[in-house]
Model the fold of this input.
Amino acid sequence: MLRFVRMAKWARRPASAKRVRLVLIVLALCLALATIERWIGWPAFLTVQKLPR
Done:
């Protein structure tokens, strides 16, 4: 429900060009990271290892 309120607010008072550019840059970085992870794979050093008990 809160999402619809935010969308209505954004429609009434559009964001500045800087804010839109920031959102697009963040979206592009996320897509680039997802694409790299899909093609190359998840690095082994970032995988969590179980600790022995």
Q: What stands out?
A: Residues 36 and 42 are 9 Å apart (CA to CA). The helical segments are 2-12, 17-40. The chain has a mean pLDDT of 89. The chain is about 65% helix and 0% strand.
